[in-house]
Structure formats: structure tokens, C-alpha cells
Write a structure and sequence with these properties.
- The structure is a single chain.
- By secondary structure, the chain is α/β, with parallel strands linked by helices.
- It folds into two domains: 133 residues, Alpha-Beta Complex (Aspartate Aminotransferase, domain 1), CATH 3.90.1150; 236 residues, Type I PLP-dependent aspartate aminotransferase-like (Major domain) (Aspartate Aminotransferase, domain 2, 3-Layer(aba) Sandwich).
- Helices cover 39% and strands 13% of the residues.
- It has twelve helices and twelve strands.
- Helix 1 runs antiparallel to helix 8 and helix 3 packs parallel to helix 8.
- The longest helix has 39 residues.
- The chain is globular.
Length: 394
């Protein structure tokens, strides 16, 4: 088997910077480098670029531009919304799903350690939020519910419209982390009655180190970053001008090409799933089979560890992961897979593949061939007793 090219299937961790985005950013490093807050023509030109990007971000989710605040990324946005709304509210209780990104769960843990009541909404075996559990937990006064639009590990897409409507009917703020979903899921914050939404540039072929937080006008939320009067006094710090321009351009490309990209990636996703399930035994698809991101394929392989599979794939030129990039260095069981009740026989063998705009059918075929070789070798060496019939090519 020839390893002649790199196959990148870790697009949930980060994507490459799109060429159009890169070229749009370049002038703001060298020639149009003004501070958007400066009161001269160079500053005004920079400010115009910021506001153009703000308008683009607002458009993709049907918000108003003055409801968009630029951040250093979705992690900052998530920290801000969780801590800022609690700080501004007389009710010190929040609800989050059991499978949120660490930037939400760790923020919630910090709040809990500082006297805030945090409860976790249950999910089913596919990672879908339990509406009865949400309703039961909303029987007590609550200031915020945070449920991600789509899960970063298993790709399950939530019924955000339903959850947002329930929160609205109970006069509770609703936040969703749309970091993984912006390109795959149509979001209309006004129609869906979403209070706040987080997003990140480097998940949509934009630059790293920039994101945005949508905050519905009138929402009670405290300032998170002090030190200046930027962002209408809500978030201090000099604007990262090139990155903001890049985010705006990346969003424009999502709006222009998103449907075409999603159709193609969904076809590859379904083909990938079919190939793995037909050619390899002892596998389990994690997450909802159809209600999932167009680029996400998360499988558990029985009798092996995900880390071993990822390491051997890397040697063969295929880049994949075991889960969220924020915690992938920690060799521990995925809290997401535990929450959805994945069996002990499979939970350690999870591997996440996330297809990108550049992925081809040939890339998928090569990856499946690699997996067949890897699993045959690992299962031969494994001390775990695999109680199944394994075909000769696995």
C-alpha cells in the first residue's frame, strides 16, 4: 500500500485557510493596517472593514450587525455568554447538555465551584437532548440553557428550534454553540428565538484566533473582557483586524458555496459509513445515523483503542482523531460517548473522521483500506477477547 499523499480527515479540529480568505486578509497586515478606533482616514478604512465583516456574520444567521461581537474564538464566546448571563441575572441556575464542548462544561464547572447551580440535561443513545428532562428541569427558576447545535465528537444535530421555543415559553435565555454547525446547518436566530450563539473562524476555512458571539438585543449580560471601549463597550481589546476580515470572508464563502459543499460531503459521509460497515466487523457508528453533520463519521472499533488506530493511520498518511482537539492529548474515555451509553466493548475504540471540502472518494477508499490493515494487526496483538467472527481481510 503506497503512502503517497496526506489525507486530512480532522476538519472538526480545524480546517485549512481558504485561499480567498488568505488573500482578503493580506492587505490588513501590510497596507490597510490601521487601528479601527483611530480617528483618522487609515483608522476609518480599518473600521469599515470590521463593519463589513460584522454584517456578513450577522447575515448568515439572520441577526442584526449590532448584535454581533467579535472574540478570540468560540471558547471565549462560550465563556463570556455562560459567565456573563449568570453574573447579570438574579437567578443563579443554568442548564447545559451532558455532551457540550469543554469550553462550556469547564465554564459550568467553574460556576458550580463558585456557588452557581448547574444541572445537566440528559441525552439519548444518539446524542439527542431529552425534551422531557429539559421540561422537568425548567420547573425550577433558571437563567440560561445552553445546548450546542451539533456535537463536536459524534456529529449529532440537535432540534434547536424546539429547544429554543421551550426556553422562550419559560422566559429563559437560550444559547447555542454553533461552532461545528455553521456550514452544515441553516440557522435563523430570529425565527428560532435564539438568545445567543457562538461561532469560530477556523472551523469554516477561516483564520484561527477569531470568532464571534451573537447576543440578542436587550439580553442582560455583563462585560467579559475589560480594558477598553471596543465592541460597544462590551469587549475590550484592540481589534484583530486581519482575522476579523478573514472571518467575514469565510462566512461569505459559506453562504455562497455551502449548499454545494454540503451535498458533496454528505454523499462522501454516507459512502464512508457504508464502506466501513460492509467491510469491517466489530464496528459501531456513534451519533445519530441521519440527524448528523454532513461531514462527520464517528466509529468505535471493538477490541482496539482509538489512539492506536489514529497513530497507525497517521503513519499511513491519514489524519483523524479520537474526539475533541481540546482534550485529545488526554487518554481517557470520552465523556460524550459515556453520556450516550456506548458499551464498554466499544467506548475505547472511537475514532472521529471529519470530511472536508478537499476530500475525495479516493481518499475515503484509501482510508478504508488502511483501516482494514490496521484493525487486522491490532486485533491480532490485542489481549482483549473479541467475541465475533472476523472476516479474513480484517
Amino acid at each position: 500500500m503506497a503512502f503517497s499523499k496526506e489525507i486530512y480527515l480532522d476538519n472538526a479540529a480545524t480546517t485549512y485557510c481558504n485561499g480567498e480568505v488568505f488573500y482578503a486578509m493580506q492587505p490588513y497586515f501590510i497596507t490597510n493596517y490601521g487601528n479601527p478606533n483611530s480617528l483618522h482616514s487609515v483608522g476609518y478604512a480599518a473600521r469599515e472593514a470590521v463593519e463589513k465583516a460584522r454584517a456578513s456574520v450577522a447575515k448568515i444567521i439572520n441577526a442584526d450587525p449590532d448584535e454581533i461581537y467579535f472574540t478570540s474564538g468560540a471558547t471565549e464566546a462560550n465563556n463570556w455568554v455562560i459567565k456573563g448571563i449568570v453574573s447579570a441575572s438574579p437567578v443563579k441556575r443554568i442548564l447545559i447538555s451532558a455532551i457540550e464542548h469543554p469550553s462550556i462544561t469547564e465554564s459550568a464547572r467553574w460556576l458550580s465551584e463558585n456557588g452557581i447551580e448547574v444541572e445537566y440535561i440528559k441525552v439519548d443513545e444518539n446524542g439527542i437532548i431529552s425534551i422531557p428532562d429539559l421540561l422537568a428541569k425548567l420547573s425550577k427558576p433558571t437563567c440560561l440553557v445552553s445546548v450546542m447545535t451539533a456535537n463536536h465528537e459524534v456529529g449529532t444535530v440537535q432540534y434547536i428550534n424546539t429547544i429554543a421555543n421551550i426556553c422562550s415559553q419559560n422566559n429563559v435565555y437560550f444559547h447555542t454553540d454553533a461552532t461545528q454547525a455553521l456550514e452544515s446547518v441553516h440557522i435563523n436566530v430570529k425565527e428560532m428565538d435564539i438568545t445567543a450563539l457562538s461561532l469560530s473562524g477556523h472551523k469554516i476555512y477561516g483564520p484561527k484566533g477569531v470568532g464571534a458571539l451573537y447576543i440578542k438585543r436587550g439580553t442582560r449580560i455583563d462585560t467579559f473582557m475589560h480594558g477598553g471601549h471596543q465592541e460597544d463597550g462590551m469587549r475590550g481589546g484592540t481589534y484583530n483586524l486581519p482575522a476579523i476580515v478573514g472571518l467575514g470572508k469565510a462566512v461569505e464563502i459559506c453562504m455562497r458555496d455551502g449548499n454545494t459543499n454540503n451535498v458533496r460531503m454528505k454523499q462522501l459521509r454516507d459512502y464512508f459509513i457504508k464502506e466501513i460497515e460492509s467491510k469491517i466487523q466489530g464496528v459501531k457508528l456513534n451519533g445519530h445515523r441521519t440527524q448528523r453533520l454532513s461531514n462527520n463519521v464517528n466509529f468505535s472499533f471493538k477490541g482496539v483503542t482509538g489512539e492506536s488506530v489514529v497513530a497507525m493511520l497517521d503513519v499511513m498518511g491519514v489524519r483523524a482523531s479520537t474526539g475533541t482537539a481540546s482534550t485529545s492529548e488526554v487518554l481517557s474515555r470520552s465523556y460524550v460517548l459515556q453520556a450516550i451509553g456506548v458499551n464498554d466493548d466499544y467506548i475505547n475504540g472511537a475514532v472521529r473522521f471529519t470530511i472536508g471540502r478537499a476530500t475525495t472518494k479516493e481518499d475515503i477508499d484509501f482510508t478504508v483500506d488502511c483501516l482494514i490493515v490496521i484493525l487486522k494487526k491490532l486485533r491480532t496483538l490485542s489481549p482483549i477477547n473479541i467475541k465475533m467472527e472476523v472476516p479474513e481481510n480484517v
